[in-house]
Amino acid sequence: MTARAGAMPGRRAARNTLALAAVVLLVALLCALSVAIGTRDVGWDDIAAALAGRAETIGQAASAARLPRTALAFLAGAALGLSGALLQGVTRNPLADPGILGINMGAALAVVVGVAWFSITSAQAYIWAAILGAGLTAVFVYVIGSLGRGGATPLKLALAGAATSVAFASLVIAVVLPRGDIAGGIQSWQVGGVGGATFVRLAPVLPFLATGFAISLLWARKLNALALGDDLAAGLGENVARTRAIAGLGAILLCGATTAVCGPIGFVGLVVPHFCRLLVGTDHRWLLPFSALAGAGLLLASDILGRILARPGELDVGIVTAFVGAPFFIWIVRRQRLREL
Asked: Which residue windows are transmembrane per the record (predicted)?
């Protein structure tokens, strides 16, 4: 029995390593397809030339223009998938997601207020406004969801987040309506997409995403302790409040920075961690990197699908992920049998 029990972790690690290699290869293939597919399909030679910095033909120019879009879809998907896994670990709530909890919409409202009332224009200002809005919204939703009997139950948090998201969406409309000069740009950004990306536009967000990624991976073991319950985690020497606060900060940096550059994109942080748990289980040391890779893959695939379905135009990724995520959200609610209000 002892030898068999000792062999189990080794077999699980080997299986997870193979699954990780498969996901890496799939994401690499999706990156290549993202560069190749569009209004004008291009060949692998054009992609190789674009990667080498050449843009002598129309195909090579098209490939070069799609490289930053592919990079943004990869980073945004990874950030959203990882932030969803973090929020689910921090709250022990299967419905936790930056979109469902209203965090993305809080970040969006802060950006819209900054643009309309304070005339912010720089990328850094957008990012800081989004992170501030995301943080304040996360605290607000958790406090509201904790009121009443039973504390912060999954359904109460989901309801508080949904109500906050709807209220903030209405406030965004109220702020934008009198400002015809910014209405078009805000409405397009609010759908959530990765079109029009450039490396110059992407650069300011990288330090925030890197910090969020680092916090997430360094706090994996502590999230495993939280999964055992607050009392047991405290008994194991964990500072539960500090662990929650820092892991929550990582999630806020990731979803706030992503919202600033892409707009609010929903459901990635809900769908991806559940899928990854089926692959690698609940150990956050595996779950977090898998969630980042799978989130990148989902957003890349959604962007590719949006280009194919609406040719010669395109559907923004926020629309595609909503079609995928809404039925999944309903299934999760039914599966969990969440009855408490």
From this structure: 70-87, 99-120, 126-145, 157-178, 198-220, 245-266, 286-305, 317-334
pLDDT in tens, 123-158: 899 999 999 999 999 999 988 888 877 677 777 888
Map out the domains of the chain with their CATH numbers: 75-272+320-336 (1.10.3470.10)
What is the C-alpha end-to-end distance of the chain, expressed in Å? Answer: 45
Share of the chain above pLDDT 90, in %: 38
In order, the DSSP letters of 220-288 are HHHHHHHTT-HHHHHHTT--HHHHHHHHHHHHHHHHHHHHHHH----SHHHHHHHHHHHHH-S-HHHHH
CA dihedral for 308, 310, 313, 317, sign (positive or negative): negative
Number of other CB atoms surrounding residue 277 within 10 Å = 18
Question: DSSP secondary structure string, 107-118?
Answer: HHHHHHHHHHHH
